């Protein structure tokens, strides 16, 4: 099954204007993720909370995406989107995920690990620099965010 679906878009959420493939995505994808337990060589499953973990989630409102899939999957579970330091620590400490990934904050903070370790403020990501676009210099973003030591 994994080899059959891997090359295809595999998401329970609306993406690019397309609706979820069925009316019960929590049950459907919970079943699929549970079946991934049969694959011993699968490194991890990576899930995302809807744009920010505190956003309303009509598909699994009572527990959130991460907890829903944690209950279905026994292997390494990585969760992303909308986490701050405290939420990330709580998510891992409570066993909802084994690891929390930081995308935008990783881009905007070249020393993200140190900032999280000491509880420092994070640089604010500048979304318009994530991808090349007219009017935005190519050298903007990714490599020019300040390090914590530079801000002090």
Question: Can you tell me about this structure?
Answer:
This is NADH:flavin oxidoreductase/NADH oxidase N-terminal domain-containing protein. One of its GO terms (molecular function) is FMN binding. InterPro entries: OxRdtase_FMN_N, Oye-like. Residues 32-121 form the NADH:flavin oxidoreductase/NADH oxidase N-terminal domain. It comes from Phytophthora aleatoria. The chain contains 7 helices and 3 strands; from the N terminus they run H-H-E-H-E-H-E-H-H-H. The protein has helices at residues 2-5, 25-35, 64-72, 85-93, 104-108, 112-118, 148-151, and strands at 45-48, 77-80, 99-101. Helix 3 links the parallel strand 1 (45-48) and strand 2. The protein has a 3-stranded parallel β-sheet, covered by helices on one side. The mean pLDDT is 82. With 152 residues, it is mainly alpha-helical. It has 2 domains: 1-101, no CATH class; 103-152, no CATH class.
Quick recap:
The protein is mainly alpha-helical and 152 residues long. The protein is built from seven helices and three strands.
The helical percent reads: 25-40%
Strand content is 5-15%
* Number of H- or I-type helical stretches: 7
Please give the radius of gyration in angstroms.
18 Å
Number of domains: 2
GO molecular function: FMN binding; oxidoreductase activity
Protein name: NADH:flavin oxidoreductase/NADH oxidase N-terminal domain-containing protein
Domain NADH:flavin oxidoreductase/NADH oxidase N-terminal: 32-121
InterPro entries: OxRdtase_FMN_N, Oye-like
């Amino acid at each position: 099954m994994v080899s059959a679906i891997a090359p295809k878009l595999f998401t329970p959420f609306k993406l690019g204007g397309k609706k979820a493939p069925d009316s019960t995505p929590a049950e459907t994808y919970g079943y699929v993720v549970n079946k991934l337990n049969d694959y011993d060589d699968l490194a991890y499953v990576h899930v995302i909370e809807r744009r920010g973990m505190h956003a309303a989630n009509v598909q699994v409102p009572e527990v959130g995406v991460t907890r829903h899939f944690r209950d279905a999957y026994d292997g390494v579970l990585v969760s992303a989107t909308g986490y701050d330091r405290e939420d990330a620590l709580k998510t891992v400490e409570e066993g909802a995920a084994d690891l929390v990934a930081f995308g935008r904050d990783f881009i905007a903070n070249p020393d993200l690990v140190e900032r999280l370790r000491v509880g420092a403020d994070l640089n604010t990501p500048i979304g318009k620099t994530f991808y090349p676009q007219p009017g935005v210099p190519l050298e903007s973003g990714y490599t020019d965010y300040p390090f914590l030591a530079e801000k002090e």
